[in-house]
Specification:
Aspartate Aminotransferase, domain 1, Aspartate Aminotransferase, domain 2, 2 domains
């Protein structure tokens, strides 16, 4: 799989995309909320799970469940094989060169914290600098603030323009001899802006600086190839990827992982323990202390199987069509202000409605069965940049349809009538 810029892969001829057939794979899309058919537009927070993933979880729990890496009995061997097979599936999904570079975590947040503790606390000292961007989710801000407070390091921030795009012309000026790490989101959760991470990685490497990419919002929607990006770390979550909660992945280049200190101590991350000395296990096990989320990892493996069967390029094309249609429909509504109008976006629409608080918008839309997210989206620096306390966010997935957009627009018109 080769990562391509959005405009390249979306320009390819698109085969017919049977969204109704895909929707049939998602049982939750058949339910009603407040007596109305569910229209689920909160995918940036968490996606829904297709039946094949549910079935795989049930099969594991009913025929394979045991602890892994610690026994020779049949169930343990089955569970171990399924868990490690899931690691290989994730390796192929993001095109990691080595399965040892795929570490299972509880999610993106833990993956970023792992890098902060394992890399940052070992290599970043007083006076060193970390470059972040205004677009970051709190989970890619707060850990680095904690490290800076602990070590005396300094955080430098790349700003954004009025469209919600990174001011890339200012990026290189942030580097100095003390720069030790760049942290950047691949796709903004608050605005949907797709950041030029490949270009940013190349520039950082020119200065000898490693790059951590928060891919939580990119992996579910775009083809991702970590070798093509050449990033040093890449973090993402299972629950945004049609998988279970409580599971995520940190990809890291082997040479870096081998030089990092473990994040957590305990069973399975060791080779030998005495009261005089502990010898740590090899990667990836060095970073997977204790009993891992076995069922969730296996479920995530099934989720990437499902997404691969649909095709990430087909998913990106369909979601781009949804974004274009929904953008036009919302722009035609008087009183709607879109927040974030980047030239390259994932299928996220963040907006305000004149005279109506976003929480009221979300509450009234829920009465029509429409699920959206309201608030600051764990991205308060973004809200501050646009001088709004919160937005309403509609975020689309490949199982959403144009009809879902129409229901959203009708719902917003109803909200406007209530507050007229």
């Amino acid at each position: 799989m080769n990562a391509r810029s959005p405009e390249m892969h979306l320009a390819a001829p698109a085969p017919a995309f049977d969204v109704e057939r895909i929707r049939a794979d998602f049982p939750i899309l058949q339910i009603e909320v407040e007596g109305k058919p569910l229209v689920y537009l909160d995918n940036a927070a968490s996606s829904q799970m297709p039946q094949p993933v549910i079935d795989r979880l049930v099969r594991y729990q009913t025929t394979e469940h045991a602890n892994i890496h610690r026994a020779v009995h049949t169930l343990s061997e089955r569970a171990t094989a399924a868990y490690e097979e899931a690691r290989t599936k994730l390796q192929h999904f993001i095109n990691a060169p080595d399965r040892r570079e795929v570490i299972f975590t509880s999610g993106t947040t833990e993956a970023i914290n792992l890098v902060m503790h394992g890399y940052g606390r070992k290599f970043i000292r007083a006076g060193d600098e970390i470059i972040l961007t205004t677009l970051e989710h709190h989970s890619n801000i707060v850990p680095w603030q904690m490290l800076a407070e602990e070590t005396g390091a300094r955080i430098r921030v790349l700003p954004i323009n009025d469209a919600g795009e990174l001011c890339l012309d200012q990026f290189e000026a942030l580097f100095s001899a003390r720069t030790k790490l760049v942290g950047v989101g691949h796709v903004s959760n608050a605005l949907g802006s797709i950041n030029p991470v490949k270009q940013m990685v190349a520039l950082a490497h020119k200065h000898g600086v490693p790059v951590l990419v928060d891919g939580a919002q990119a992996v579910p929607h775009l083809p991702v190839d970590v070798q093509d990006l050449d990033c040093d770390f890449y973090a993402f979550s299972g629950h945004k990827l049609c998988g279970p909660t409580g599971i995520g992945v940190l990809y890291g280049k082997a040479a870096l992982l081998e030089n990092m200190q473990p994040f957590k101590g305990g069973g399975d991350m060791i080779l030998a323990v005495s009261f005089e000395k502990t010898t740590y296990n090899t990667i990836p096990h060095k970073f997977e202390a204790g009993t891992p989320p076995i069922a969730a990892a296996i479920g995530l493996g099934a989720a990437v199987d499902y997404l691969s069967s649909v095709g990430m390029q087909a998913i990106a094309r369909h979601e781009h069509a949804l974004l274009q249609y929904a953008t036009g429909q919302l722009q035609a509504l008087a009183g709607v202000r879109l927040i974030g109008t980047a030239a390259h976006k994932a299928a996220v629409l963040s907006f305000t409605l004149d005279g109506v608080h976003p929480h009221d918008v979300g509450t009234l839309l829920n009465q029509d069965g429409i699920a959206v997210r309201t608030g600051h989206h764990c991205a308060q620096p973004v809200m501050a940049r646009f001088k709004v306390p919160a937005t309403t966010r509609a975020s689309f997935a490949f199982y959403n349809s144009m009809a879902d957009v129409d229901v959203l627009v009708a719902g917003l018109r109803s909200v406007q009538k209530v507050f007229a």
